[in-house]
Write a structure and sequence with these properties.
Length: 339
Amino acid sequence: MSGPILSRRTVIVSLTMLPMLFRTENALAIPNLPIQLQDIKLKLQNTPKVTMPIISGDVSMFDQTLKTPRLEFDLGADLVIENLDYDWIAIYAEVIALNGFATIRRSMAINLDGADGMRGPDGLPARRNPGSPGNSGQPGGPGSPGSTQEVPEVFLFCKQFLWQGRQANPADVQNKFVLSFDGYPGGKGGTGGAGGNGSPGRQGRKAKDGWFGNCSAGPGYGGPGGDAGVAGAPGVGGNGSDAPAIYMFVSPAQTPVAGAISYSTRGGAPGRNGRLGSPGTPGRGGPEGDTTSNCGSAGRTGRSGRIPTPCGLPDITAQPGADGTAPVVTEYTGFAELG
């Protein structure tokens, strides 16, 4: 974008005052876009005007701007704004022609879910010494947090609204033409990774017979198994984004129709926290040492590894986005300045 642009919050505050800022005794319409919208004006001036086919089914819009002499919607058609990374999007149509229910809406296909955590490595083998303990599995990796996707502000410029080939009236568009720009729901947190497995303990040392037909040393204790790797922590859900502002600049005669257009500007729902990962498998205890003719079993098998308890789940909860307001409709006579 060229030139400076004010923050979204500042633009909202300024533009909601447009009807008052430009009102005179003899005119309600503004003849030029205000300086706050200089970037939008320049962008539209440099956007070529294209002839659009009739919108039928779902039609995607990826660019920041669309400029056309006629934007016609078939019954049940949706114009879908796919790229939500812009600060704003602008649609300029000299005529918006409606033939039944139609929608301009944001994309619903962006995946904001956090990645699952990595599985923890297994414990290293026990040392070769008889009765050596197994090693613990490593913790599972934490799930990644869900992301937040902002939704761009919407600017709609229109000289005339048609309904089934004639001038539209407010009753035609109410609940039949919808601008649906809810905030985007936050992504779900990723599931924690599984803990690694503990390695088994080594077998105990072999029993040893004495010189005189006795048992000099019984079988050695088996090494304890390594503990299981602790479960990975879940990822935190992403915050829902605020609903964007919607601004309509229309010819003075179209103000009642524009004011009746239905809209949805609810704040985005918060994302859920992910799930705790699963712990690894504890290592088996090593068997007791081999017996001999004089030394029997002594029940010295090593204990199995333990399953550790996770430290705790995150106590953070994602927040919903703020609801938006009704679209701001401004009477406008400066269409020629947009090219």
